[in-house]
From TrEMBL:
Signal peptide positions (record): 1-21
Keyword Signal part of the UniProt annotation: yes
The organism's place on the tree of life at top rank: Bacteria
Keywords assigned by UniProt, alphabetized: ANK repeat, Signal
UniProt xrefs under Pfam families: Ank_2 (PF12796)
Protein name, UniProt field: Ankyrin repeat-containing protein
ANK repeat residue intervals: 72-104
Kinase recorded as keyword: no
């Protein structure tokens, strides 16, 4: 409980003061708090999918964005399925998304839809996969 309170307090301080992770670790004498902070880099393409920004996704596809390029170990179709972005999922399928690729965790695009209870995306996938 004490560790949780300290972690929340440290996070709040960072948010309020705008300190960077490097500044925090330089300011502490003990083990750096930032060792538990993991940098997450998701592609702009997948960010647009998660947000449901169809127009941006369409523009990027039209400009030649790779519809099978993984970000955080998942394909764009997996992000669309996980977040139930049906129109985007259909666009990705029409643009050549490979629905047989497994994520770095070993899950299929269909499994992400099932795990997220994304019923509409699951229906699209079942039609596309013929199952």
């Amino acid at each position: 409980m004490r560790k949780t309170i300290l972690t929340v307090a440290a996070a709040f301080m960072v948010a309020v003061t705008g300190l960077s992770a490097k500044e925090i670790s330089a300011a502490t004498d003990g083990p750096a708090i930032t060792k538990n902070i993991k940098e997450v880099n998701i592609s702009s393409f997948c960010k647009a999918i998660v947000k449901g920004d169809y127009n941006t996704v369409k523009s990027l596809v039209d400009l030649g964005e790779d519809v099978n390029q993984k970000s955080l170990g998942m394909t764009p179709a997996m992000f669309a399925a996980r977040y139930n972005k049906v129109e985007i999922l259909e666009l990705l399928i029409e643009s050549g998304a490979d629905l047989q690729i497994k994520s770095d965790n070993g899950f299929s695009v269909k499994k992400y839809a099932e795990l997220s209870n994304a019923v509409d995306a699951l229906a699209v996938l079942e039609t596309a996969l013929g199952s």
